[in-house]
Every structure is written in C-alpha cells, then in structure tokens.
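Milestone 3.1: sequence recovery, worked example.
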C-alpha cells in the first residue's frame, strides 16, 4: 500500500474500525466485577493498542514510498492538519487528556473519595501513578523537542536540496523519512507507556477518551470541509 490514494482508503476504514472497537469498550462492564470481566476489558484495551500499531505499520510503508505526501497528509481534513505536529497528533496531548479526565472524574466522585471509597477510575489515580505519569510526560516533552529540532535542521537545509547536486536529493529525503518515523514511533510508544501505567479500568477509560477525541476531530473536520461555501 504505497500510494496516497491507498492510504486514504485505509485511513477511513481504520477510523470505522476504531469506532467499532470504542463501542465495544463503552458497553463493556465497568468497573469489572469478576476476573472474566477484567480479562475481557484487558483484551479489548489491547485490541485498541494493536489497532494503533497497525495504523503506524501501514503509515510507515507510505512514508517510505512518498514521505512528502505523508507530511502534507492529503487524506486528513483541513482541521486535522491544523492540529498536526510532524504529520500527526502531538504525543504530549495524551498527558493533558489524562489530567483532564482525572480531574473531571475526581470532581464527579469527590463525595465518595472523601469517604475513603475507591472508585478505581481515572479520578482515583494514586500518588505513585501521578508521579510516573509526570515523569513520562517530561521524557516525552524532551523527545518531542529533539525531533522538532531535527525537523528544523532539515528545513534550514531546504535550499541545499534545491541548489545541490540531484544525487544529494535522496539523502535529504531520507532524513525527512527518519524524522517522520521518529515522530510516529514516539506517538505509539507514548500510548503504550501511558496504558502500562494505568489499571485495566483506567486504561479503558483513557483509550475511550483518546479515541473519542480523535474520532471527534476526524468527523468535525470532514463536516467543515464539506460545508457549503458562503459568498462574501
């Protein structure tokens, strides 16, 4: 699957499948009341993570084939592209999502929490979990910045691509391939590492929130792209 047209079809199908997986997570019993429930939730969460891994596996092939098209993301809506960091979402967005969901659920269950009752959801993160999430956020910010700097260096050398010998063009494009792949690798690793820091129930809530945000941006962007043009 090397052409942008093929990846566009994959992209739309991938989102349809993501919505189906999210629906399975929404209707699954939460909190899990038995070991079977916990195993079922864990299996569904792993399916979501594997679905993201498949996305980046196929995207990697497209990057090797035509990195410039991938960078401009013609399959994405204008709204999606306005939010992109190096041909995709910014990894540190996930930490803002964790903190936001945790705060909302904490406030919702505050009466129970003050009574010493454990809710087991994202609003019930332990001090150790908060510390580890914060440490991972710092690590991710450093990696984001390093990749951003690498892209800036590539952009600064853009004149060399135009003025240098044609034989140098392949090396320049190869550097861009490396940058985009590093960004995608960080995106996938961040999903996996956040999930690893959470309990099964918390991981499911996190993945549902992340998926709903992504699908919301996807759907809203397409509605904006297809709205009628208004005359001045």
């Amino acid at each position: 699957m090397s052409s942008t047209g093929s990846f566009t079809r994959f992209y739309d199908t991938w989102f349809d499948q993501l919505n189906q997986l999210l629906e399975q997570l929404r209707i699954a019993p939460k909190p899990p009341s038995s070991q079977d429930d916990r195993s079922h939730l864990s299996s569904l969460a792993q399916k979501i993570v594997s679905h993201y891994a498949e996305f980046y596996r196929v995207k990697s092939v497209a990057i090797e084939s035509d990195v410039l098209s991938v960078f401009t993301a013609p399959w994405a809506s204008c709204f999606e592209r306005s939010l992109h960091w190096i041909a995709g979402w910014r990894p540190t967005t996930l930490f803002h999502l964790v903190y936001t969901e945790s705060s909302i659920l904490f406030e919702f269950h505050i009466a129970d929490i003050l009574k010493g009752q454990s809710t087991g959801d994202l609003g019930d993160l332990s001090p150790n979990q908060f510390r580890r999430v914060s440490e991972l956020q710092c690590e991710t910010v450093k990696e984001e910045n390093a990749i951003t700097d690498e892209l800036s260096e590539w952009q600064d050398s853009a004149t060399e691509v135009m003025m240098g010998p044609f034989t140098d063009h392949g090396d320049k494009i190869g550097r861009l391939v490396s940058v985009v792949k590093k960004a995608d690798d960080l995106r996938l690793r961040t999903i996996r590492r956040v999930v690893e820091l959470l309990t099964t129930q918390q991981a499911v809530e996190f993945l549902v929130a992340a998926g709903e945000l992504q699908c919301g941006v996807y759907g809203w962007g397409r509605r904006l792209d297809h709205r009628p043009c208004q005359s001045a």
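The chain has one domain: 3-226. Residues 3-226 form one domain.
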